[in-house]
Amino acid sequence: MRNSKFSLLLSFCILLILASCSTAETDEPVVLTVMTHDSFEISTEVVELFEQQNDVQVQFFKAGDTGSALNKAVLAGDNPLGDVFYGVDNTFLSRALDEDIFEPYDSPLLEKVDQAFILDPQHRAIPVDYADVCINYDRAYFDEENLEIPQALEDLVDPAYRGLLVVENPALSSPGLAFLLTTIGHFGDPAYLDFWSELVENDVLIVNDWETAYYSEYTLWDGQRPMVVSYSSSPSFEYIYAEAPLEEPPSASVVGPETCFRQIEFAGILKGTNSRELAEKWIDFMLSLEFQENIQLNMAVFPVRSDAALHEAFDQFMQTADPLSEVSPEEISANREYWIEQWTETVLR
What we know:
By secondary structure, the protein is an alpha/beta fold. The chain has 13 helices and eleven strands. It folds into two domains: about 25-130 and about 265-310, Periplasmic binding protein-like II (D-Maltodextrin-Binding Protein, domain 2); about 130-260 and about 320-345, Periplasmic binding protein-like II (D-Maltodextrin-Binding Protein, domain 2), CATH 3.40.190.10. It has helices spanning about 1-25, 45-55, 65-75, 95-100, 140-145, 175-185, 190-200, 210-215, 235-240, 275-285, 290-300, 310-315, 330-345; strands spanning about 30-35, 55-60, 85-90, 100-105, 125-140, 165-170, 205, 225-230, 250-255, 260-270, 300-305. Helix 7 packs parallel to helix 13.
């Protein structure tokens, strides 16, 4: 009888322990991991809105610039480093699709997106935002030096602008690659290499990433170069976040014909995710008005939803080239690595 009571008591204790473990496991928050490039930013309140709506914790994994982050996503293969990848752009899109890292998802909110931004008909890569890569210049520097503003890419090789331009390495940086494509679209292949050779002779500075180019080398931020490859939205961003109110942005963009290239950024559900349903909800959330309108002031990019409101400063000061320099996705897919290799041979060796 004592053995029977002891057995019952032991069984009861085991059940209590198992129930306690089960409760502890239930209390653990579900985590959705979103892999991004280093420049990704979004307001905490917006992320919390998604977390509350879906009873989930969102974890962001910043994996380097666009090229580096994509390399990591590709190398991970069937063991993805996240559930969603955000930040691959149209300059790297073909590689992401060729490597088959995304699962298709036909988001119902795609009907709100301008069709010009949908470059993957299988909806593996979902457009989220866009911006035009242009050359920005420091207004005060050009005024103080009584120097004319360049109006065309050809102007940049003039000795008057010697040592004034900083650009990003296209092998490592998505705006750097976008600017390389700007030159290819404008000059053609192989004439773009002649232009780059002349830029080298005119003391162009090459750095690895946008953050270094903009915040370390650009005169607007105490650097030595008054021209930088950045975005047409950057001047408005400087105006919005200026320490003291301004009448106009301290910088502007060179917007002569074919001097800018439109960069579109995409998100996709990574193959192998164990949180497919939540990943779909996150993609939908990135296309929601809350996210689309918030991302403008965090990343200085524009929403792909035509019904999303633009911040008034972007409406007032935004510039872009007319026409833009264009290279088709098919041409980029076929030639990107070759063009980068040729650029590297010409500029860095």
